[in-house]
Amino acid sequence: MENIKISLGTGGADGEISVVRVDGVIDTMTATELEKVMNSLLDQKRYSIVIDLGGVDYISSAGWGIFISNIREIRQNEGDIKLARLVPNVREIFELLEFDSILQCFDNVEKAKQDFETRPRGIDAPEEHGARESMVQKLTGAGASVTVADPAVAVEQTVTIEAQQSLDIRERPADLESRVLELVREDPFYSISEMKRIINTENSLGVKAGWWKVRSILKAHDLISKRKRFRYARKG
């Protein structure tokens, strides 16, 4: 897939650590490629995983969901997922969503690999389980209701809900301003360029969306920053 490149390596004294390097964008279109790689590692019972995100400048909620969806199985098998080399833009979202209470991130791959060798392994503590439930509510949004026993399942359901909401939005007519605001609610971390591309690809409004026009709509609603868009999306 042209927007994502994934390569695999190993580390650790016995090569038991899998290093997944990702370059490009992890969104609803490319997340399936990463999911295939992660599922393949689990099928091989490789549970010590480092994700090198140094070449990734955007991760949608679908992408974040992949990291979380199998974390219970991984930790039950004395493994873990550790993130490395998050660029500032991605790290800002990582911390905004409070993923730092669930997953560890490191400045480089070597530190992430070393952490596997120096820290005890095992299933996450109860408070960490609660943190995942809180994260699911953030991904789902204030207006949605997802109640399941395992928050990993909830993340998968959240991604499905978002996909269906996106289809529903495209099926009904809307003016440009309404569509921009709908996209903010759908995924507050879309960039202005991504919003423009989505709207023009849909071709359902009868007008072309320009970068400055989309920005002016966001500015009029005080939604220029991703933090403000995130808060707006949570309000529904």
From the structure above, extract its key features.
single chain; 236 residues; alpha/beta; Transcription Regulator spoIIAA; 5-stranded mixed sheet
Q: In a few lines, what is going on in this structure?
A:
This protein is 53% helix and 16% strand.
Helix and strand layout, with pairings?
Blueprint: E1 4-11, E2 17-26, H1 31-43, E3 48-59, H2 61-69, H3 71-76, E4 80-84, H4 88-96, E5 104-106, H5 109-118, H6 126-140, H7 151-171, H8 176-186, H9 192-202, H10 211-220, H11 226-235
Parallel strand pairs: 2-3, 3-4, 4-5
Antiparallel strand pairs: 1-2
Helix pairs in contact: 2-7, 6-7, 7-8
* CATH 2nd-level architecture of the largest domain: 2-Layer Sandwich
Would you list the SSEs in sequence order as H and E? EEHEHHEHEHHHHHHH
User: What's the CATH topology label of the largest domain?
Assistant: Transcription Regulator spoIIAA
N-C termini distance = 33 Å
How is the biggest beta sheet arranged?
5 strands, mixed
Proportion of beta-strand residues: 15-25%
What does this structure look like?
There is one protein chain. The protein has 236 residues and is of the alpha/beta class. It has two domains: 4-139, STAS domain (Transcription Regulator spoIIAA, 2-Layer Sandwich); 172-235, no CATH class. 53% of the residues lie in helices and 16% in strands. The chain has a five-stranded mixed beta sheet, with helices on both faces. Helix 4 (88-96) links the parallel strand 4 (80-84) and strand 5 (104-106). Helix 2 runs antiparallel to helix 7, helix 6 (126-140) packs parallel to helix 7 (151-171) and helix 7 (151-171) packs antiparallel against helix 8 (176-186).
